[in-house]
Amino acid sequence: MANTPDHECDVLVIGSGGGALTGAYTAAREGLSVIVAEASTHFGGTTAYSGGGMWFPCNAALTREGHHDTLDAARTYFRAVVGNRTPTALQDAFLEGGAPPIDYLEADTDFKFMAFPWPDYFGSAPQAHATGRHIMAKPLKAEKLGTLRDTLRPPLGTERADEPLPDGLFGGQALLARLLLALSKQPRADLRRNAVCDELLLTDGAVTGAVITHDGTRRHIRAHRGVLIAAGGFEHNQQMRDQHGVPGTTRDAMGPPSNQGLATLAGITAGADTDLMNEAWWSPGITHPDGTSTFSLWFTGGIFVDDQGERFVNESAAYDRIGRRILSRLADEAMTLPYWMIYDDRAGERPPVQSTSVPLGNTQDYVDAGLWHTADTLDELATKIGVPAENLARTVARFNTFAESGTDEDYGRGDEPFDRAFTGGASPLVPITKGPFHAAAFGISDLGTKGGLRTDPRARVLNTEGDVIPGLYAAGNSMAAVSGTTYPGGGNPIGACMVFSHLAALDMAQHRGEAQAS
User: Fold this and answer.
1) What separation in angstroms does the CA of 172 have from each of 15, 28, 45, 193?
2) Can you tell me the distance from the alpha carbon of 489 to that of 511, in angstroms, rounded to the nearest whole number?
3) Is the pLDDT of residue 364 over 60?
4) Where is 31: in which H helix or E strand?
5) Beta strands 293-295 and 280-287, pairing class
6) Is the alpha carbon torsion for 21, 24, 26, 28 positive or negative?
7) What tens digit of pLDDT does each residue of 455-503 get?
């Protein structure tokens, strides 16, 4: 540690997504001085692109709207889905820690939350909830942010597709806006952009600060209570992806380009242990003319077929479950990319995909790029996409019998509540009968890596011996995910980041967290 630091604070927060800002707000409200270091030009991280959901069992927003659940039921579900891949104490910290931050935040009038029904992602698991344990920040008008709007990372439609900034703030944008508003009223909170952390400072084995390159100048920041790394994953660092065996490419990652994993690497250099480093939050991704495949859901028709022209998955399952099925088959060399969505003309030439993260462009651009095909017959369509015609015809015919009977005998499409989340409860089995017939190319996308620094239930980072590294905390995609290799429900990533950032800030407010891990 430099004898004379350039700056001092009680708490240094690396990152500025929904979880990081929750930690910063908690620390500031507890009377601590806080510096937030955001690597990019805008605050918000991946949360800015997201729906902004939070998976928090038995919280006040759900209770207000008559949601019937118990913590024991939520624990049964979470255990069934996650298993023993992550420590039981860590899982309990998340489950029991979800409701208190909502009470804490809603004590401040800048925060308002609402239930947003979103079924749990493993609907057949014990105690799965058909309407989920999912809440969101209430929308608000962008004008309420004033000049803070310029500091907030815009949504993907604006950032990647040049859509105008919306007048209203929804989902992740609303959550971040409320956090920025609340933090702007905390006199001891200092939020900095273009501030990259790639080194932690240690004194006698304890983390006592970090080196931050702010606007091109390296500065030593002394943090008296601790450093919280909540800087997202490393999905845009291809070298790290390759090193840890994360499938896919940076091109198809949905996090902001600044998610390079530099703060995570700094934690590793400081002695931190890691876990789940080959994992990410997966999804099918429709492929665009620029070559990117982006997070896609809300399918109102169509089936996926592989390069043999055969179905291989429940197309209405939760996106991470579909993504993992794709990756498993790719690893077994049972299929290659792209795979194809096959659909008929009942809704026209454009694919029946209502959410593609990055808005779809002009139809002709996809046709010219060889990504969308149309033919009068399935045989002709099969030739265009290079799959066996007899297989595609047989696959579609078999699926159509399922659509007629209402039961998918192959993959159970429609059997779980999430399968019907976008159809108003109706069957998602839409027959493919109305010509001409269409095919759209898909790849694999991710919402960010989920491997990172291993922590205890108070978000304290552990070293390779299992002991706490004093003064170092982690949350979100910088922390090894509490959900292990699964995605239990919508809002799990943001929810976990908020919980463990909140717990980290409270721990720093109470003490330095120097005790050994249990």
Assistant:
1) 15, 22, 10, 19
2) 33
3) yes
4) none
5) antiparallel
6) negative
7) 999 999 999 999 999 999 999 999 999 999 999 999 999 999 999 999 9
